[in-house]
Amino acid sequence: MTTSFEYNRLNKDDAAVLMVDHQAGLISLVQDYPPNEFKNNVLALADIAKFFNLPTILTTSFEQGPNGPIVPELKEMFPDAPYIARPGQINAWDNDDFVAAVKATGKKQLIIAGIVTDVCVAFVALSAIEAGFDVFVVTDASGTFDETVRAAAWERMSAAGVQLLNWFAVACELHRDWRNDIEGLGNLLSNHIPLYRGLMTSYFARAGQ
Amino acid sequence: MTTSFEYNRLNKDDAAVLMVDHQAGLISLVQDYPPNEFKNNVLALADIAKFFNLPTILTTSFEQGPNGPIVPELKEMFPDAPYIARPGQINAWDNDDFVAAVKATGKKQLIIAGIVTDVCVAFVALSAIEAGFDVFVVTDASGTFDETVRAAAWERMSAAGVQLLNWFAVACELHRDWRNDIEGLGNLLSNHIPLYRGLMTSYFARAGQ
Amino acid sequence: MTTSFEYNRLNKDDAAVLMVDHQAGLISLVQDYPPNEFKNNVLALADIAKFFNLPTILTTSFEQGPNGPIVPELKEMFPDAPYIARPGQINAWDNDDFVAAVKATGKKQLIIAGIVTDVCVAFVALSAIEAGFDVFVVTDASGTFDETVRAAAWERMSAAGVQLLNWFAVACELHRDWRNDIEGLGNLLSNHIPLYRGLMTSYFARAGQ
Amino acid sequence: MTTSFEYNRLNKDDAAVLMVDHQAGLISLVQDYPPNEFKNNVLALADIAKFFNLPTILTTSFEQGPNGPIVPELKEMFPDAPYIARPGQINAWDNDDFVAAVKATGKKQLIIAGIVTDVCVAFVALSAIEAGFDVFVVTDASGTFDETVRAAAWERMSAAGVQLLNWFAVACELHRDWRNDIEGLGNLLSNHIPLYRGLMTSYFARAGQ
Amino acid sequence: MTTSFEYNRLNKDDAAVLMVDHQAGLISLVQDYPPNEFKNNVLALADIAKFFNLPTILTTSFEQGPNGPIVPELKEMFPDAPYIARPGQINAWDNDDFVAAVKATGKKQLIIAGIVTDVCVAFVALSAIEAGFDVFVVTDASGTFDETVRAAAWERMSAAGVQLLNWFAVACELHRDWRNDIEGLGNLLSNHIPLYRGLMTSYFARAGQ
Amino acid sequence: MTTSFEYNRLNKDDAAVLMVDHQAGLISLVQDYPPNEFKNNVLALADIAKFFNLPTILTTSFEQGPNGPIVPELKEMFPDAPYIARPGQINAWDNDDFVAAVKATGKKQLIIAGIVTDVCVAFVALSAIEAGFDVFVVTDASGTFDETVRAAAWERMSAAGVQLLNWFAVACELHRDWRNDIEGLGNLLSNHIPLYRGLMTSYFARAGQ
Amino acid sequence: MTTSFEYNRLNKDDAAVLMVDHQAGLISLVQDYPPNEFKNNVLALADIAKFFNLPTILTTSFEQGPNGPIVPELKEMFPDAPYIARPGQINAWDNDDFVAAVKATGKKQLIIAGIVTDVCVAFVALSAIEAGFDVFVVTDASGTFDETVRAAAWERMSAAGVQLLNWFAVACELHRDWRNDIEGLGNLLSNHIPLYRGLMTSYFARAGQ
Amino acid sequence: MTTSFEYNRLNKDDAAVLMVDHQAGLISLVQDYPPNEFKNNVLALADIAKFFNLPTILTTSFEQGPNGPIVPELKEMFPDAPYIARPGQINAWDNDDFVAAVKATGKKQLIIAGIVTDVCVAFVALSAIEAGFDVFVVTDASGTFDETVRAAAWERMSAAGVQLLNWFAVACELHRDWRNDIEGLGNLLSNHIPLYRGLMTSYFARAGQ
């Protein structure tokens, strides 16, 4: 059963990041993660995109309406990223500009996160798989109404061949080796994992003695 | 592994809705969702069926006995829908009238919800898959004894090729584009997602200033 | 220890209802109840106030700002109720108009609910106790950030002599005897407790046979 | 602070049991215990009442309506107990026949359980405390809508001086000493605590070798 | 993907039941179900086996040692069933007598439950799948250390083609049609589902009026 | 309200430890803590008693029967401690030898833990409070059937003036100052708190460089 | 019972903040809050102390050892605050310098948070109550091993007259009226409550249109 | 669907154990198991490796930095095992020495555990599957940030053909038959399963009478 398995792992030279509908209004719908944990996860993924210089695409749905504008931090971090404010398509893959922007990156691996997991993320992920891309959904930078909804969305995506990873696994799979940039990865982890920050604080306090 | 995946997504022109055994007595068995959440989910799915004009079929099991009559709201919303009061078959697919009604819709995609998930829903879903239909079970408009029972039922259905979606994903996958009817979808969401209603209330309060 | 206990129970002739800061924006902060459960609880309390003709006072905090307008259902149900849009006081009891409105009811028992439990509810409740009122906080029509915050707020209020009741207990303690209005109470319960609605549906289906 | 504490413990010669509104319809409202656990707890309390020959009073609310008849097991176990089918009073203590039956027992300690905890149990318990009785509410033979409702009801009762005990503690506090009837208590525990039954099965299997 | 799915459903003429290691000592290891719920589930499955006259096989592991004797109820219910007290094999399928007993039933569908899920159940289930049987594991009549252990065991079995069903689904899938024996199935459900018993009690109380 | 509070804190010169019914059979009833956590908590309390040379009393209930013998570790750690194998009294305080042993310690502060919390612990604790002792129940070295039972038992004890502390708080309140024995307390914490052991391992690894 | 209640509420002119043992090593022991939620809570309390110019005292336990240095953010935010590195006292109130620093603030209300809740917080809180201070423990800026340990610590403190508040309630009770500094409080909430930030982002986006 | 399933079960003659990054610092990141449960699980797996004489390989990541040294117990138990302190590779399979050590064992079945599950375990497991090994991940001797992260990691590994087992299942699947060493397996279980120890204590107490 496992004879022909190929480990399709993230490669920083062949990956792009899609941030789908992280909007100020929609964020109030997210109840499957504690609020500050979710905020931290989204910003950690954004930091990963910056750290590895991955092409990044932002998209929003109806941002003039109740869904609200994109969360300001993302707009500030990626001022030059393709930004597709969709006029109506719920599945971003139904928007030609979005697909064109994805294809323009020339990357085969798509790292996707968004709000809400079962719609904005799942629809794009399934379409991208169908289109032949390798899809990695960042589980904890995607949020939805509750844990049961999330479980069904995961099941649907996993059955289609989507790989499910948390942002920490994304960072580590892209980095491969601490020696590629010890301080860079260390800072990223310290900023987003309080317990790791604690380890580093104690370590450097002693190292400095 | 993912090379040949085809995203079989809901299409409002090719979908029918099956409401299985949402009966006044059986509803007391549902303990895997808080009661008002479950009621809301079932009515949301009914509203979806109406909004997209999907052919809808109602069926009940032993409605003269302890299982009780169909919940009145469904009967009122679909006065002209095929209504199959099964004399004894537990699996609705074992009832010829029910299968005939399904086939009479001429649709290939079946959206199924019911009580209880592990029996009334799962049996129909597995039979329908076997009969060549594409089956989409609405996870949160289906209820059962507890979360562990639900998890096993999901596993069994998913292994057979059933797609598991919450009602919100069903609505969005059918609608495709907000511009098809902004107000219609907006109302539907506002009526069934209190947090979305909050967003809309604030939005229109300001828009009206 | 229990020798001198006096059961201070709700009396429909001596009770008023205070709805504090149920606003469209603030409602997105409530994460200690599932959204439709919370919406149902708030509307159930409003129905109780109407059913028993209890004087009811509405108040909001900063409704022109991010907190948003009062939830429309409450405004519609109580068009003639005193409505105090506070210009800045976080504790409604610090607003003279609000206290005057409370005192104008001439009632000694105050039934209080609001958003968020630990601030908008707790502050008013503690002030009202201090002012000599009997205070009954409606636990499930009040919401806040999470269950741990709620637990601490309950502890603080209970230690001060606040009585904690869910809306169902409020309705039953006010009603005293089904014979005062069987159909009225039955409808109220049927509208807000799906499982009770199920019991009634089965009952009347059989009674009608 | 603890200088004057008097341990008011259950005494089989001075205790009566009140079973309040364990009715076939109302039982469907109980969601704070798994169904078979709750059934077992109620029957365990009934067995305790029998085992210690405690005067026992049954009462129901509106048993001809949706609330349904008393659960048959209780009626069968206590064929000669006072049985007060209340015509309308929600608080059983508001029914003169019920209070008379309680007083007729001549006992000062009242062991109370019922459905639902926040109304049928709490109201009676608070009234009984006010009337000068010592009240022991059997926590796990009383059920209600969810754990949050239960927590508030416990808080209200505890603040009034009610003692909260599970049925196992009731049995042990009444029995005092195994030697009063080793086999009797052993059977009771074996019938209602599967893990204790396991211990006894293993024990006697070896003792019999 | 779903084109060739065959719904392999339980057939009372082609099914046997294997009860694996439900022993008085081992039962104390089960912590993934509340104790009375688990006891009820095991006895419900036993009643199903009796009701449908399914060949049933009992087996134990080291019953003279700490694992303890088989729970007495099972021994009493199946006095003539093959009973294989294994001298040491952990996987019952490694015991020739057990396999011979299974094959002697002449059935192709095996309904398996036991303690603990991850060992006594999973090992037999995987061996039976390998041997060409159709395997249905009764999820809630099998118990283990905690929910995380259970989840991994389910995943391992499901990946091998085992179907996971709760006892209620087993009963319903075997029965097919209420008309095969309305009273029989009704009694079975009434004895093991307190909420269903409540429905029946109310129903017959009214029917009898 | 708080004007006259006196902080009655643990004093190693005035405290005794009572270990009540930690027996091999009864331990299988404990389901409110994960098994290894509970085992660790009980042994941590035993280590505290040894470390501070506190007089310690062991007692058991019916140890020849299904309740089983005392857990061997406790017997080995306190070979010379008073050991009262009660012939039948459920409340150890009803046993004269036990009370005599407690009084013989000459201590006023009693640190109590046992199985199960709601009976073996609560009964002794309430009796000891009544007898004028200061009682400190070690919450996490006491176990019972489930968390709801525990919550009621805590409420009952707290209302009587019992102080509730986890073993870590007991150790720290007794020790007062690390300088009394840095290594001793460090070892105790390292042996029973894996995360603290991790801190110490990292610390000393670096200190040793 | 409630006749003489005085609402002792926080007053920014009479309050000081005590930050107890928020150290890099100890923070790894905190498991009763998700890590980023806890970090946010501690920093929110620190921001409150700054915003209201409350005298603030920092203290640590054994910071040269495994407990590790104070978390750097606190040291940076309060460079001039009294900083008491305790040489060994577990209860900071046993350290004369600490008590002197507290008294030097001249404040009667003490707002206390720390790690771990059951020791470093509870011991100080109980000592301060005994010394006649009004004590407000910030529940969510204090952390410990698990939720059960926290519950016992809350109970012990509440019984002694400690008031339990989350940081949001602390901020609101100190601020009293939004008009005292709308932008200041708004920024504080926006920085620490992601859902409130969402409300503000949407609000200002529209206000700016 | 199940026709060609081959039960690839653990074989003590063809299995090796890989312990990946169980380091004193990283252990503080593990929050998906209670601390003493996790510690027990890791040591149980180590005992299994010793008991069956399985070749065992230890590896660490950056042990001189914040991740900290390997937990001392593992180093002590396997003084002669290959020990690969990786200079930077996050995925141990990217380290040639590690892969060489694995291949040198000559075993085809790899039993893998480590910290954290989603990175240190999952990456190695996926690489090993790709390399043609049979991979068995020990679920409960592997830990990570929270249960949601764990669930995604399990899903990813299971989809690749990894088998997920708890340590108890590993022990039992390797042992096959109690008679291979009754006392040995008994001791192992007694040391790591407190409830099993209880069974054995009671058993031998009676056997010794």
Automatic annotation (TrEMBL), chains A, B, C, D, E, F, G, H:
Q: Which GO terms describe its molecular function?
A: hydrolase activity
Keywords recorded for this protein, A-Z: Hydrolase
Isochorismatase-like domain: residues covered: 16-165
A Pfam family assignment? Isochorismatase
Stored CDD domains = YcaC_related (cd01012)
Which superkingdom heads the taxonomic lineage of this protein's source? Answer: Bacteria
Please give the PANTHER family that the UniProt record associates with this protein: HYDROLASE YCAC-RELATED
Q: Report the protein name in the record.
A: Hydrolase
Source species = Leptolyngbya iicbica LK
Taxonomy of origin reads: Bacteria, Bacillati, Cyanobacteriota, Cyanophyceae, Leptolyngbyales
